[in-house]
TrEMBL record:
Pfam families: DUF308. This is DUF308 domain-containing protein. Keywords: Membrane, Transmembrane, Transmembrane helix. The keyword Ribosomal protein does not apply. The lineage of its organism: Bacteria, Pseudomonadati, Pseudomonadota, Alphaproteobacteria, Hyphomicrobiales. It comes from Rhizobium aethiopicum. The chain crosses the membrane at residues 16-34, 40-59, 71-89, 126-145, 157-179.
Length: 185
């Protein structure tokens, strides 16, 4: 029979792996469909909506929204971001990139906080903490890029999604190794 801790570790490994797989699929779609405006719009709206859904599911599995305020706020921020992306499309791709940059900063800081909070109970959260910090830095870069002269495209967001995929996959692997070591200790 699995303990709560091992069930939690199993959930987090699956959750992180699923998030990595989604990001890899999103990146492939972004690269393949970069020249198709409707597909790009869909991809840029679905990315923060997926983040909102993923945070909602994870918060519910881990005691509910009230017990996970950083994820609850991340659900709200990501949902508002999807709406802001729709509105920004009416303005310019510069505005879309600025919205993504602001979202990367906010969601990165919230992810960093969630990682720090989870470290106490789950351990092996250093990757998620690093990812949250990197997300905030990437957001600043996107905002800076949105103020430049080069016309932004979805391909400006692909590296951000790529690092996210890498960190989620690394977290999943790290937790799997930790569970294996614990089981054989």
């Amino acid at each position: 029979m699995q303990t709560h801790s091992s069930l939690q570790s199993t959930w987090l490994r699956s959750y992180y792996f699923t998030r990595a797989a989604f990001s890899v699929g999103w990146i492939a779609a972004a690269i393949l469909l970069a020249g198709q405006p409707r597909a790009v719009a869909f991809l840029l709206v679905i990315y923060p909506l997926w983040d909102a859904l993923a945070n909602l599911l994870d918060a519910r599995v881990n005691g509910g929204l009230q017990a996970n305020p950083s994820q609850t706020l991340n659900v709200a921020v990501s949902t508002v971001t999807a709406l802001a992306v729709v509105i920004a499309f009416g303005t310019s791709t510069y505005a879309v990139l600025a919205v993504f940059g602001a979202w990367a900063i906010l969601s990165g800081l919230l992810q960093l906080y969630t990682g720090v909070r989870r470290w106490r109970t789950e351990g092996a959260q250093w990757v998620m903490i690093l990812s949250g910090a990197q997300s905030a830095l990437a957001g600043g870069f996107m905002i800076g890029r949105s103020l430049g002269t080069a016309i932004p495209t979805i391909l400006d967001i692909v590296p951000y999604a790529g690092f996210g995929a890498f960190y989620f996959l690394l977290s999943s692997i790290w937790l799997a190794v930790a569970a294996h070591r614990k089981a054989h200790a």
